[in-house]
Amino acid sequence: MSDQCTICICGYTEPVSIPCGHVYCMQCLSDYISSSSPDGLTAACPTCRAEFSIVVPEVDCLGSVALCLKSPLP
């Protein structure tokens, strides 16, 4: 892994990795996706053009919270 983001050509700020293994600054990748993803669901890696999903899976934690609230206190 290089020590520079290939989008901003600076040291990483909040580095994130995409499925192909390339790493970018979180803000750089977010800006890139915002400007280059026509459907808002997939994007192509700025380096190798491999497509990846940009849909963030939903996190279902409400069920766990409800279960904890139903549990009797010790």
Descriptive notes:
Helices cover 27% and strands 16% of the residues. It has helices at residues 26-36, 62-70, and strands at 15-17, 23-25, 42-44, 51-53. The strands form 2 sheets. It has a two-stranded antiparallel ribbon with strand order 1-2. The chain has a two-stranded antiparallel sheet with strand order 3-4. The longest helix is centred in the middle third of the chain and has 11 residues, at 26-36. The protein is globular, with a radius of gyration of 18 Å. The mean pLDDT is 82. Keywords: Metal-binding, Zinc, Zinc-finger. GO terms for molecular function: zinc ion binding.
Helix count?
2
pLDDT averaged over residues: 82
Largest sheet: 2 strands, antiparallel
Strand arrangement within the widest β-sheet reads 1-2
Count of folded domains:
1
Which structural class matches the secondary elements? alpha+beta
| Overall 3D shape | globular
The gyration radius over C-alpha positions equals 18 Å
Beta-strand content bin: 15-25%
Number-wise, the strands total 4
Portion of residues within helices: 25-40%
Give the termini distance in whole angstroms. 49 Å
Which blocks of ≥5 consecutive residues have pLDDT under 50?
none
Order of helices and strands: EEHEEH
Briefly characterize the structure.
With 74 residues, this protein is α+β, with helices and mostly antiparallel strands. The protein has helices at residues 26-36, 62-70; strands at 15-17, 23-25, 42-44, 51-53.
